[in-house]
Amino acid sequence: MPDVILTIGQITRELLDCTENNMVFCKGIMRQYSSEFARPGDKIGPTLNIRLPAQLRTVSGPNLQVQDYIEQSVPLTIDQQEHVDLQFSSFEMTLSLDAWRERIGRPSGIVLANKVDAYGLGLYWAVPNAVMSPAPSPTTSKWRAYLQAGAVLADNGCPADATWRAVLNQWEQVEVVNELKGLFQSSEEIRRQYERGLMGESGGLVWTWDQNVAVHVSGPAGGAPLYATTVTGGASITVTGFTAAAALRLKRGDLFTIANVNGVNPVSLATTGKPRQFTVTADVNSAADGTATIPLYPPIIGPETPANPRQTVAALPIAAAPLTLVMTANTAYHQNIVHQEQAFALGMCRLQEPFSGQSAYAVDADNGVAIRTWKASDISTDTHASRADEAFGMVATRPIWACRVLSAVA
């Protein structure tokens, strides 16, 4: 029977279901902060500072050694608005428009969900960890690369729980599933959940695929960059040795290591024995003499006395230590991601109620997803416009609890 009798409230709830069912990446991240925004009588504005647990150190022996208690936070800002806008004439609505869910609701929900997922997966540049997924062949294992990514999370103090997820692009998914045909099984429970992109569980990961996995084209680099500054802590470094010309060298999201600079476990502060990877947080241009300043994450914080619980490297780099880029220059890579749910956070809010026309809201209190629909008519043209809006923001809260799995774009 045609769906033309649906009320705007029913339409909005249907649209919320369609949108939420088509989210993939965003289902596996923190979403409990949406209720903090746009609360009547207690509006905090567009930004919420998410408090991170303090990092503390232990003290050996009986003597008291009081340490500073420092809390850190990251801002979650609602700064994105996406909407689907449609218009129909009275003739179209009377004579042609039926089956609302299939013809309008589901397509609208798909594009709204994909916009949010794509924005979140676009935060890959904040993640400072990466492993390389090998080209498919009978002698290489892509699955092993994802297990390595899980080991990287453990090296970075990530709690081993049931919220570790792997998000693959569709071509990477083909290769991984082909390797593990017998391990990903479609159960009745999964089919009932009606969740797009869910592959199953294996190797301690919940596996999903998402066509919104970002592609990163690495910077052109050039020359042989060398570390030029010694610091006790800092979110940027100066380098020399790029090709002597003013030009783009690195792009936001490029990764590099510094010779003899290993990472540490943030809980024990013991060295991981593996090079500390850094992500470039903004595009980098060299000066005419080949020098450049590289903003990076995590900041370089070396060993101190007493121990600094925010230490990130086992030893500070020495002058003229060479930098090694993780990705080949000018090369495109899929940014598949393995992450724990607290690595990223999503916030959504109810937009202002319109002053004219018909409007309705649907909010999932458990998951924070919010949709507003709004309908209005134009008497001069006998047309009826409608729009479905979502307002959201996303942030990488603990990017060291995520690891990129880089697969070259064929």
Report on this structure:
By secondary structure, the chain is an alpha+beta fold. It has two domains: 1-55 and 74-217 and 334-410; 219-330, Beta Barrel (Elongation Factor Tu (Ef-tu), domain 3). 18% of the residues lie in helices and 35% in strands. It has helices spanning 8-21, 90-95, 100-121, 142-155, 170-179, 188-193, and strands spanning 47-52, 72-77, 80-89, 130-132, 165-168, 198-202, 205-209, 215-217, 223-227, 233-242, 247-250, 255-258, 262-264, 271-275, 278-280, 284-286, 292-301, 323-325, 332-339, 344-349, 358-363, 370-378, 383-396, 402-408. The strands form six sheets. Strands 4, 5, 6, 7, 8, 19 and 24 form a seven-stranded mixed beta sheet that branches. α1 (8-21) packs across α3. The chain starts with 7 loop residues before the first helix and ends with a strand. 39% of the residues are buried. The model is unreliable at 1-5 and 189-194 (pLDDT under 50).
